[in-house]
Amino acid sequence: MLFSVTIYSLPILSILVTLLFKKKPDLILGMLVTCLIAFFITGFRDGVGFDYISYLDNLENESFGRDFWHFVLSRFALAFNAPSLLFISYSFFTIVPIFYLSKKEVNPWIIFNFLTLPWFFIESFTVIRQLASMSFSLLAYYEMRSSKNLLRFSLFALMSFMFHASSAVFLLTLITLRLFNSSINSKFIILGVLIVVSLSLESFINYLINYFPFILFYLKGYEFGITLALITFGLFIISLGRIPHADASFLIMVGLIINFTVLNIDSSLVRLSWYFYLPFIFFRWHYIFYYLRCYSIFRPMLVAIPISLFYLALFIKGADTESGFFNYNFIFF
Asked: Any bridge partners for residue 330, and if so which?
């Protein structure tokens, strides 16, 4: 177990060192090294992750599902008779957007938050399609709120949807905000739809199953727990006004509503909320302590809180032996 925990800790140690750098070239080099380590760990693993065996079985049976890029990447892996190429490819498409964005912003906190917060890096060992989708959704969100480049937004949104259709709810929310220029009315519309759906969620799901039977796959009772939802709510409270992107707090609030709503049916549908937690990626932890005027006293807590969340998630997942988290192996060992 010690070896496995050490492996997972390597990219976190790397980004902690990077956070000490001041000069732009040093920051970019540190971020690149960190992302390469993360790519290596997630892409070249063997038997690690709850769905690892399922993906191998699907490759053997040539069962590729509905997502375009999963079909393409699965065919690519089969063409070379190398199932490991599937995981390497997904790791590439998950990590590269994170590095691209952190380099563009010259902001190592983007990578730090991706690595430590419990909806991102730790989940890339299991829900590989969704994490690739989330990385491109992050780029779509960034383009919409920062550069407002419609072409790039559309490209990244399309890429996200083609990796995993679960991104549709988040992307439609972004489009609604964009169309109405983030007006109060648009936010009321989104919240109104959420409230209506939440009040009749089970009936709504049963109705959809009649037309989309594959939804049954996501209703297997996988429990995420109230604890993580409450932790997310706590992070939301301390992040208010500390994320330098418009609509960040609103999107996180929508994610929390989805999160607490689907907890009632204990399903993997809670993953829909993860997209709405993407603004946390831009959170700079030291803003909290500047605001409280106690930065020098609590400086170690800048990284202690999110790192603790990472290890909490790791040990919860690793407690299930089927996950393989504490039996880490590389494909070439």
From this structure: 45
